[in-house]
Structures are given as C-alpha cells and as structure tokens.
Design a protein that fits this description.
The chain is built from 17 helices and no strands. By secondary structure, it is an all-alpha fold.
C-alpha cells in the first residue's frame, strides 16, 4: 500500500509539472521549462496541501552523497525516484543549453537547490508564515522568489559551481539533536512545569494539527494534572501565545549565535548566510520545535518601510527571529547599495527564507532526511551560496559576491 501511495503521489506531482509545460511556446528554453516545472509544483502544493504533506514525508531520496553517475547518465534517468529524475534531467538540460561544465555533481547541486527553494516557498504558503496571504499575494511572492532562485541557478548552469561564500560552514560544529519528549522533561519547579506543558503543546500541534491543540492534551502529554496545568496557564490561547514566544526566542538565539561566530557585525551578504546556518542549526537541534514554530507563527511579514528604526519597532509583530533576519537583510541590502524599497526587501528576504526553510524542512522531515549530517551541512552552504548569487544578480549588486 505504501508503494502504491508513493507511486500515486509521484504521478500527481508530475501531472502538475507537465500541465505547466503545456503553456510554453515551442521555442521555450530549458530555463523556461524549469520555471514552468517549479510553478507546477507550487500549484500542486496549493491545491492539494494534504497530498503535498504526504509527498514531503514519504519521498525519502536515495543516498545523494554516494551514487555516482556521469553527466550523460542523467538522460537515461538515474534509477531513483521519478520526481528526482525530472529535476536531475531539467538541471542537466539547462547546463547543456547554457554551455556550462558537463559535471554530474553540478547537475546534482543545481537540482537539489531547485527542489529546496520551491519546496520552501510552497510549504510556507500552505503551512507556514505565508498561509494567511491571499491566493494572489501567494502567487506574487512565489514568482518573486522564483526570479531570485532562477538567477542564481542560471549562473551555475553557465559557469559551474559558485565560489564558496563566507561563512563556509556553521560556527561551533554541527548541532546536537535534542528531540526530548514532554513526558521525559523534569517537573520539579514551576518553570519546569511550564516548559513541560509547552513541549506537550508543540508535540500536540505537530502530531494533530494547530486546530487540535488544547491545554488538556498538552498536559496529558507532559504527564501533568489538568488542574495543575490551569494554575500556570489559563486556556488554549494563552498556551499558544506563550509557546510561540518560547520557541521563537530559542530560534532567535541560534541566529544570534551564528552571527557571533561570523563576527557579530555587518559583513554584507555574509550576515544572511550566518543567519541561514543559525536557523538550520535550530531546526536540527529541535526538529519538532522547528516544525511547531512554522505552524504557529502568525506575525506580519511584509515591511511597511525600509527604514531600520521602523523594522526594529515592528519586530514584536514579526516575531523575534523573522524580525531579526529582516533587519540583518535590510542592513546587507543597504550596505550593498541595493534598492531601498519595502518590496525589494520583502522579496529578497522571502526568497532567502524560503531556501533556508525548505532545506531545514526537507532535511528534518522530508526527502533529504536520511542523508549523512556532514554531507547535508556542506550541501547547505553551497545551496545558500546559490541563493545569495541569485539575490545579487537579480538586484544588480554583484559586488557582494566573492569570486565574481
């Protein structure tokens, strides 16, 4: 039954990819086809969010770090999952069309980068911070993110691997997985009781959905009497509010920690990459907390102004983590001499955030979850570099990219 379900999901996804290609003209380029496929995947996710989640959780990829193929092998399919085959082959076609290096590793990194970016924006629009936008606003944001991603991929298609950008690795080593259950947490004092309740709540959300989270079930998961729980937290809404602030603060500290490793001050686009490592570290440190925060984040994400003081003042509405990243990105864009508009800032941030989120989600719960951790964090650095190059190319500020 499981194999039949996977086959059905593969077939459904590929149907949406093929449908978008039908709108292309006969002289469409390989890059046009790639963008059409990305749009098809996004449409699939928006129209079938339940199937999209199922596709995410069931489509474990093969050992990307170990299978060896030549550049031409991708034409005959990789022998892996059908949807992965589609991505590998369109990446290969784009490289060949652009006259780039006939390098199998380049095919692999470009294909995975495409998957990560499109998955990230799709998941944010169905389950994450963008879920409250109108369908039109979601499509506009998706198109903007695809423009940035396509610009970065196009550089790789034509010229090969992007030179490593600083920081080249996560500071302080790889994060430890702290997947501790609520029932196993200490409850010796008031603070520990509240933390256990919050952990029970996030487990409730991830397992049963946001609408099914209740103080009673959170208390049950934490092994705490309901009457005792109500002594500390008055009802479901208070629990949800405390939970969002609690996890957000943890994620925020992970970003700040990587900024300290990177130098702690404005270093151009490298600050965005440091923050990317921070959020990825948070996701791998606590995958359940990461997914829970994704599902409950409810703040505003569209900046009303480009001015720094306005962004700092709006952090309460955006949430500490996202607001902090927005401010870091704003400073990087300003330092680079980029456009000082809320739209440029918003689209740049959402494109980078989609790539960060997509990689974090796919490597904790999705298709990339079974890959070796060292391989994944090296892969993350290369994918973040592609996104940064795309931002620089699309906004015309290439001076921020090392090696260009």
């Amino acid at each position: 039954m499981a194999d039949e379900a996977k086959a059905y999901l593969d077939k459904l996804v590929i149907h949406y990819l093929d449908e978008q290609e039908k709108y292309l003209s006969p002289d469409a380029t390989a890059l046009d086809r790639m963008r059409a496929m990305a749009t098809g995947f996004f449409e699939f996710a928006q129209k079938h969010p339940v199937y999209f989640d199922a596709f995410t959780f069931t489509q474990a990829a093969p050992s990307l770090h170990s299978f060896e193929l030549s550049f031409d092998d991708y034409l005959q399919r990789s022998g892996k999952r059908p949807t992965l085959d589609v991505l590998l082959n369109i990446a290969r076609d784009c490289i060949e069309e652009a006259g780039g290096p006939r390098d199998a590793d380049l095919v692999r990194i470009q294909a995975v980068s495409l998957l990560v970016g499109v998955h990230g924006i799709s998941h944010l629009c169905t389950t994450g911070v963008l879920r409250h936008l109108s369908p039109t606003a979601k499509k506009q944001t998706f198109k903007a993110c695809l423009d940035y991603l396509s610009a970065g991929l196009a550089v790789g298609f034509a010229h090969g691997a992007i030179p490593p950008q600083y920081p080249v690795a996560m500071g302080g080593g790889l994060p430890a997985d702290k997947r501790i259950r609520a029932k196993d947490l200490p409850r010796g004092n008031d603070g520990e009781v509240v933390r256990a309740l919050l952990r029970g709540a996030v487990e409730d959300i991830v397992d049963s959905g946001l609408s099914n989270m209740h103080l009673g079930t959170a208390a049950e998961r934490a092994g705490i009497d309901f009457d005792r729980a109500t002594h500390f937290i008055e009802g479901d809404q208070k629990l949800l509010s405390l939970l969002e602030k609690h996890i957000d603060a943890i994620a925020h500290e992970h970003l700040r920690e990587q900024m300290r490793y990177a130098g702690g001050k404005s270093l151009g686009f490298s600050t965005m990459k440091a923050c990317a490592f921070g959020y990825l570290g948070f996701a791998h440190h606590d995958p359940v907390g990461f997914l829970g925060l994704t599902m409950i984040t409810s703040g505003s994400i569209v900046p009303a102004s480009f001015e720094r003081k306005d962004l700092i003042n709006s952090r309460f509405e955006m949430g500490e983590t996202f607001g902090y990243f927005m401010t870091i990105a704003r400073d990087a864009l300003d330092e680079a001499g980029g456009p000082r508009t809320p739209w440029a800032l918003y689209t740049m941030v959402m494109s980078m955030w989609s790539t960060i989120h997509g990689f974090a989600h796919l490597t904790t719960f999705g298709a990339l979850r079974d890959q070796p951790r060292e391989f994944l964090f090296d892969l993350a650095s290369r994918i973040f570099d592609i996104e940064l190059v795309g931002i620089a190319e699309h906004l015309g500020i290439k001076g921020q990219i090392q090696g260009f």
